[in-house]
Specification:
Layout (H helix, E strand, L loop, with lengths): L2 H4 L19 H4 L19 H7 L13 E3 L5 E5 L8 H13 L6 E5 L21 H28 L6 E4 L2 E4 L4 E4 L4 H5 L29 H5 L15 E7 L6 E5 L2 H5 L4 E7 L2 E6 L2 H10 L2 E4 L18 H9 L6 E6 L2 H6 L3 E8 L12 E6 L5 E4 L5 H12 L6 E4 L19 H11 L3 E4 L2 H7 L6 E9 L5 E10 L2 H6 L8 H4 L11 E8 L14 H18 L4 H8 L4 H13 L8 E2 L5 E9 L5 E11 L2 E12 L6 H20 L5 E2 L2 E2 L17 E6 L17 H13 L16
Helix pairs in contact: 4-5, 17-21, 20-21
Length: 754
C-alpha cells in the first residue's frame, strides 16, 4: 500500500493511525497506487525507464503529466489540483479545463489537493497560491495543455496496441476510436502502456478549437458538493492519527504579552483527562486525551501576563493597552499631509481653482475579521525517520512547508505538508505572524513526543485573526458649471496588507492599499490618488477582494455625492463618464436592464414600503462588475431586497460557478456594509465570538440576480470581483432613501427612521 493511499482510507480499515478520510476518494485509493492498468503518477510505485529518467530532470511547472493525473482501469480519473478547494469551485473548474483537452468527462474526475512540489507552481509558472482570484485565469493555458499532453500519451499507447497509425485515431470522452477498423479502447485499457511513455514536448500538442468545447463554458455540476452535503468531506479539523493527543490554548489578551506565571498550574494538571500543561510564546497550552478537556483546562488557566521586554520578538506587533479602534479611526481621519502619489493625471491644481463647485468629505472603513466557519487547526506528527507530517488549512503549501522547515531546522524534503480542503478562507490562511497554530502544534508534538492536534476555539481565533485594514480617505471633488466632475483627489490614510505582512518600503507604495481608488476608468480629466502611510498596532491581512473591499466603497459613494451636488442622476453620470469605454458602458447597461430598468427612487413598492436603489461599479482582479441594490428601512434597520449584478470576466469556464461566486460575494459584501466590525477597547477585541461579531444571517440576505457578460477579453478572476460594488450600491441606495449621506461602514452604527 502506498503512502498516498494509506492516508486516505477509513480509520477502521487501516488501524495504524493514518488520517481518516471517508470521502468518495476512498474507493479509488484503498488499493495500491500501481493497481493493474493504472496510469499513475509519482507515488513511489514502480516506473519504467522513460518515466524514471524524465522524473529526474526538471520540467516546466504544469507539464509533468504523472504528477497530476491517474487514469484508473474503471475510467475514473484522479487529478491532483495545484489550487486548494475552499468552496469556490476550483476543483470542478480544473476538471473541466483538463478534461476538455484530455477528452474526458469532468464527472469522471476525483480531485484532491496536490502535495508540495515544483510541478505545481503554475501561477504564472512561478508560484502557487490560492488567492487573488488567480487560480483559473493564471493556469488556464497550462492546464489545457496538461490535458492535451495526457491525451497524446493515451493516443500513442493506443496506436501501439491497435497497430494503427496515430493519425488515424480520434477520441470520444474516455475512449480512443479507430474508425477505419471499427475498434475502440477505453482510456483505462491502455493506461498501463501509457504509464511509461515520456511526456511529449509541451509545444508539440495542439489545443482544441474553442468552438468545439464540450465542457468549458458549460454549467458543469460541482464535484465537491456531494461529499460536503453528506458529511464525508474531510477538513483539517477532522484529521486523526494513531496515538494523537488534543491541545487547546489560552492566548494572551493582547499580542506581544508573555507568560509571567501560571498561578494554578497544579490544579490544571489535575483536571480530568489532562496530560500536560505548557508555556508557549504568548499562550498557555493544555494537552489532553480529548479536545473538550483541553479546552476547559486552558480556559481555566490563571495567568499573570507580562509586558514585552527587550528580548521581545521584533516580528510581532505589540498591542498597547490603551488602543481603541474609535481613537485610531479619528487619528486616521486627521492625519496631516498630502501623501505619496500613486496617480496624478492632468492639472489638479488648476482644475480646482477654476471649478464652479468644490466638495470635500472624509470616508472611513472598519477593521474586519475573516470569520470563516472552520477555525484554524493543525495536526503535527514527528516520525521515526526524522520526518514531520503536518496537516493544516493553508492557501500556499510551499510557503508553509518552507516556513515549517525553517522553524524546525529540518530539510524541506523532510516536511510533508498535507492540505485538506478549506472550510472557508477569504485570505485567512496565509503566512501571517502569530496568526497560525502550526508553530504551537509542532512545539507541543516535540515536547510531548506524540502527535498533537491543536484546534483554536473561536474565542482564541478572534484574538489572533489578522484583520482587513481600516482607512480614512479625504476626498475633494470639483464640478464645472454643468455639474460634471472635472477633478477628484483622494488621500488615504492607511496601511496596506502587503506592506503590513512584508514590511513597509519608503520608496514604493503598496498597491493593495489603494486598489479601487486607483485604476478607475471614469473620464474625469484631472485626478490625484495618494496614500499617507500609518502603521497599525494590529496585525493586518488580505481579506476577500483586498483593497477593493473598502476602496470601491469610498470612491463609488463619493461619486454619488458628486452627482447629487451637480444635480446629476448617478446612473446617468456613470454612463456619461464611460461613454468612450464600450466594455464598461455595456456592463452598466446590462445591470440596468437586469434590474428591469434603472429607477433611483425613492418610490413605493407593491408591499407599500418606501424604497430606493443605488448603483456602483468595480474593476478588481481583471474582471469588471456593475451592481444595483434596492433597499428599504424596517424597524430602523436597512433591508436589502434585491441585488442585480452584471459581471464581465472576459471569458468563462463555468457559468454556474460564476453565479454562485457572485451570490457568495454579495453575501459577504452585504455583511460588511450592514453589520461587520471588529472593535477594540483597552487593547482587546470586544467580540470574541459571533454573538458580538454578527455576520449576515440568512433572513437578511437579498435576492441576487446575476448576468454574465462575456466580452471576449482576457480572462479575469471570479472569486472576489463580485464583492466590491455591493457595499457602495447599498450605501448609495440608503443615502437616496433617507437623505442621509453614508460615509462609513457598517450601517448598524447609523440610526434610521422607518
Amino acid at each position: 500500500m502506498t503512502e498516498a493511499s494509506r492516508n486516505l482510507v477509513r480509520e477502521n480499515e487501516f488501524p495504524i493511525g493514518s488520517p481518516v478520510n471517508i470521502s468518495r476518494r476512498h474507493f479509488l485509493l484503498t488499493s495500491a497506487g500501481a493497481a493493474a492498468g493504472a496510469f499513475v503518477l509519482g507515488f513511489g510505485v514502480p516506473v519504467g525507464s522513460a518515466r524514471a529518467q524524465q522524473a529526474a530532470n526538471p520540467m516546466p511547472p504544469g507539464t509533468r503529466v504523472p504528477a497530476f493525473l491517474e487514469i484508473r482501469p474503471d475510467g475514473t480519473i484522479r487529478f491532483t489540483s495545484p489550487f486548494v478547494e475552499g468552496g469556490q469551485g476550483v476543483f470542478t473548474a480544473m476538471a473541466q479545463i483538463v478534461g476538455e483537452e484530455l477528452d474526458a468527462d469532468p464527472k469522471t474526475f476525483v480531485v484532491e489537493n496536490a502535495p508540495t512540489g515544483s510541478d505545481y507552481l503554475v501561477v504564472h509558472g512561478k508560484m502557487r497560491i490560492t488567492g487573488g482570484s488567480m487560480s483559473v485565469r493564471t493556469s488556464y493555458e497550462t492546464m489545457r495543455r496538461l490535458g492535451a499532453l495526457a491525451r497524446n500519451m493515451i493516443l500513442q499507447a493506443a496506436a501501439k496496441r491497435l497497430n494503427a497509425p496515430i493519425a488515424e485515431l480520434t477520441t470520444e470522452p474516455g475512449r480512443v476510436i479507430h474508425a477505419a477498423s471499427g475498434r475502440s479502447l477505453a482510456y483505462g485499457d491502455v493506461a498501463a502502456e501509457a504509464l511509461d511513455l515520456p511526456v511529449p514536448a509541451s509545444e508539440s500538442v495542439t489545443l482544441r478549437d474553442p468552438s468545439k468545447f464540450r465542457w468549458i463554458g458549460k454549467p458543469v455540476e460541482r464535484l465537491d458538493i456531494h461529499d460536503k452535503s453528506t458529511g464525508k468531506a474531510v477538513y483539517a479539523i477532522d484529521c486523526k492519527v494513531e496515538g494523537m493527543l488534543h491541545a487547546a490554548v489560552q492566548h494572551a489578551p493582547r499580542l506581544g504579552l508573555t507568560i509571567g506565571r501560571i498561578r494554578n498550574e497544579d490544579q490544571l494538571k489535575a483536571m480530568p483527562g489532562v496530560h500536560s500543561v505548557h508555556s508557549l510564546p504568548g499562550a498557555v497550552a493544555v494537552v489532553a486525551e480529548r479536545w473538550w478537556n483541553a479546552k476547559r483546562a486552558a480556559e481555566a488557566a490563571q495567568v499573570d501576563w507580562r509586558e514585552p521586554g527587550l528580548d521581545a520578538n521584533a516580528a510581532l506587533r505589540y498591542m498597547p493597552a490603551d488602543f481603541s479602534t474609535s481613537a485610531f479611526n479619528d487619528k486616521l481621519a486627521n492625519e496631516p499631509g498630502n501623501g505619496k502619489e500613486a496617480e496624478n493625471v492632468g492639472d489638479i491644481v488648476k482644475a480646482f481653482e477654476g471649478a464652479k463647485t468644490v466638495i470635500s468629505a472624509t470616508y472611513k472603513s472598519q477593521y474586519l475579521r475573516h470569520a470563516q466557519l472552520e477555525p484554524p487547526s493543525t495536526l503535527a506528527r514527528f516520525n521515526p525517520d526524522g520526518s514531520l507530517d503536518v496537516w493544516l488549512p493553508n492557501q500556499a503549501p510551499e510557503q508553509f512547508q518552507a516556513d515549517i522547515a525553517k522553524l524546525t531546522g529540518l530539510d524541506p524534503s523532510k516536511v510533508k505538508l498535507h492540505s485538506p480542503i478549506l472550510g472557508g478562507f477569504f485570505g485567512r490562511h496565509f503566512l501571517y505572524p502569530s496568526a497560525n497554530p502550526y508553530p504551537q502544534a509542532i512545539q507541543l508534538a516535540k515536547e510531548v513526543g506524540r502527535p498533537i492536534k491543536l484546534i483554536w476555539s473561536r474565542e482564541e481565533e478572534f484574538l489572533r485573526d489578522p484583520m482587513r485594514p481600516m482607512a480614512a480617505v479625504r476626498f475633494r471633488g470639483a464640478l464645472d458649471a454643468s455639474g460634471m466632475p472635472v477633478a477628484l483627489e483622494a488621500i488615504s490614510a492607511c496601511e496596506g496588507p502587503t506592506e503590513s505582512v512584508f514590511g513597509h518600503k519608503e520608496d514604493s507604495l503598496d498597491p493593495t492599499a489603494l486598489e479601487g481608488l486607483t485604476g478607475k476608468s471614469y473620464a474625469i480629466p484631472n485626478y490625484r490618488i495618494a496614500q499617507i502611510y500609518v502603521k497599525n498596532p494590529a496585525t493586518l491581512a488580505y481579506w476577500r477582494s483586498v483593497g477593493n473591499s473598502m476602496n470601491d466603497f469610498f470612491y463609488e459613494t463619493f461619486l454619488d455625492e458628486l452627482a447629487d451636488k451637480g444635480g446629476q442622476d448617478p446612473y446617468e453620470l456613470r454612463l456619461k463618464l464611460l461613454q468612450k469605454n464600450e466594455r464598461l458602458s455595456n456592463l452598466l447597461k446590462a445591470a440596468g436592464d437586469l434590474s428591469g430598468g434603472w429607477k433611483r427612487g425613492p418610490f413605493t413598492a407593491d408591499d407599500g414600503s418606501r424604497r430606493a436603489r443605488g448603483v456602483a461599479m468595480a474593476s478588481p482582479f481583471g474582471s469588471h462588475t456593475a451592481a444595483i441594490a434596492e433597499v428599504s428601512i424596517r424597524n430602523g434597520r436597512v433591508v436589502v431586497h434585491d441585488v442585480w449584478e452584471a459581471i464581465d470576466p472576459g471569458s468563462i469556464v463555468n457559468p454556474a460557478i460564476i453565479e454562485a461566486q457572485v451570490n457568495s460575494a454579495t453575501a459577504l459584501g452585504m455583511s460588511q456594509v450592514l453589520m461587520e466590525e471588529a472593535v477594540y477597547k483597552n487593547g482587546e477585541p470586544v467580540a470574541r465570538n459571533y454573538d458580538l461579531y454578527p455576520i449576515l444571517p440568512p433572513d437578511r440576505m437579498a435576492r441576487v440576480h446575476v448576468r454574465i457578460v462575456e466580452s471576449g477579453a482576457e480572462m479575469g478572476g471570479i472569486g472576489e470581483p463580485g464583492l466590491p460594488a455591493i457595499p457602495p450600491a447599498v450605501a448609495n441606495a440608503v443615502s437616496t432613501l433617507t437623505g442621509k449621506r453614508i460615509r462609513s461602514m457598517p450601517l448598524s452604527n447609523y440610526t434610521f427612521e422607518s
